[in-house]
Amino acid sequence: MLKQGLELKQTQKLSPLQIQTIKLIELPIQELEQRIRKELEENPVLDEDAPKEKEEDEAPREVSLSEYKEDDSIPSYRLRSDNYNTKDERPQYSTFSVKESFTQSLQEQLGYRNLTEHQYAVASFIIGSLDDDGYLRRSLDSIVDDLSFRANIETDEQEVADMLKIVQEFEPAGVGARDLRECLLLQIRLLKKTPEVDNAVRILKNYFNEFTNKHFQKIMTRMNISEDELKAAMSKILKLNPSPGGQIDDSYTDQAQQIIPDFLLELKDGELILSMPRFSVPELRVNRKYADILIEAANSSEREKKEAAAFVKKKLDSAKWFVEAIKQRHNTLSNTMQAIVDYQHDYFVDGDETHLKPMVLKDIAEKTGFDISTISRVVNSKYIETHFGIYPLKYFFSEGLENQEGEEVSTRELKKALQECVDNEDKHKPLTDDELVEVMTSKGYKVARRTIAKYRDQLGIPKARLRKEL
């Protein structure tokens, strides 16, 4: 039997301003500036250029965008950022120079080869298939298929292999390798022939697994070489570059994007001073043409002019929300970062990691009154410049564990202590995880073996057997 009834539900709908603010909070400073530029381009009522000088009797009355009301007929609107003087110079940041694109460099080298148009197309496709580190991690048959279906180029695996060999002759040495072993072999074969180089080639060709697993005794026995000869060969291998593509910045990838800090923290006379030096709202004003539409509509009963005025007012509302969202973003970021600085005050004074207190998103949410999700958005992709370096905000958050005195210490401090243990160990007899537990315990840290293993993996520290040296 079909029943009908009314059910009352209470739902919360975000306002356009809240939606704008949430989106802007997530953006780092570079993307915020791009977003502002996009708004200027897409909202026709906004004009960034400062108005030209007028005679006093011609100058329209300037009204802040915040004064706009739905029923106002305003000849001109103007908004100026309250916290940034356009006459002031923006702070300068050191940025990385953009080098030649990795792909461009290879394509340029390809142009010097005497190839047919067909061969050039195949080789060029191979270059475009390389990963950022310079490796080709796709099978040759998949490249043959892609060339056929995507580029309408008929070829076979042998021709692709031949063109790959040509690419592998390019600089930087090792580019186009299918794996680490091939990458190292491509490089070491360019070195002058010496006994050390010959042994290094033999190791990479015939005993690569033993080499990566540091089974040195097996290598010496099977190659019938001494420990000194093995050390000499290994020194040649260890000088090779396992990531040839990393030598050239690719200006078309995210990796080449410069990091510009959103916050600046300075220590002046023992006091921590936090600022957001790059933050500013561009000077915005209503384009004169659209201001005239409002004036005409106020004095007219024509339907078309009223509709035009409604369009302008709709865009004005959008501008109001956008500018207000930028201001709220600034306040949210500023309050959150100040709470982090206050919470980690001792650490920010000297940069000593042992002073970094355990801190999670909830701690800052409680101090600021913001939601945890808001704190997460603030922390994501943001950086701060301090007197001891530039750090992502995520760096200052960590869980905590107790030491033997029952005091809570951050996992950051524990990891630093673990790293020091490994750095100071005898590399001929590296410490096992169980031995690391004993050393950490002697330093006053209560940690289980599984915790050591987890932190070791997070720090990129191999197992004891793989840390062994001759």
Summarize the entry for a quick read.
The protein has 20 helices and 10 strands.
Helix fraction by DSSP (H/I, runs of at least 4): 40-55%
Question: Average pLDDT value?
Answer: 77
Low-confidence stretches: 50-100, 248-257
Query: Count of DSSP E strands?
Result: 10
In what range is the share of β-strand residues?
Answer: 5-15%
Description of the structure:
It is a single chain. With 470 residues, the chain is α+β, with helices and mostly antiparallel strands. Among the domains are: 63 residues, no CATH class; 86 residues; 68 residues, Orthogonal Bundle (Arc Repressor Mutant, subunit A). Helices cover 47% and strands 7% of the residues. The chain is built from 20 helices and ten strands. Strands 1-6-3-2 form a four-stranded mixed sheet. Strands 5-4-7-8 form a four-stranded mixed sheet. It has a two-stranded antiparallel ribbon with strand order 9-10. α3 runs antiparallel to α4 and α12 crosses α13. It is flat.
Chain-wise SSE layout:
Elements: H1 16-25, H2 29-42, E1 46-47, E2 63-64, E3 77-79, H3 102-110, H4 117-128, H5 140-149, H6 157-167, H7 180-188, H8 195-206, H9 208-212, H10 216-223, H11 227-238, E4 263-268, E5 271-275, E6 284-286, H12 288-298, H13 303-343, H14 345-350, H15 361-368, H16 372-379, E7 383-386, E8 389-392, E9 400-402, E10 408-410, H17 411-423, H18 433-442, H19 449-458, H20 464-467
Parallel strand pairs: 2-3, 4-7
Antiparallel strand pairs: 1-6, 3-6, 4-5, 7-8, 9-10
Helix pairs in contact: 1-13, 3-4, 4-6, 7-8, 8-11, 12-13, 13-15, 15-16, 18-19
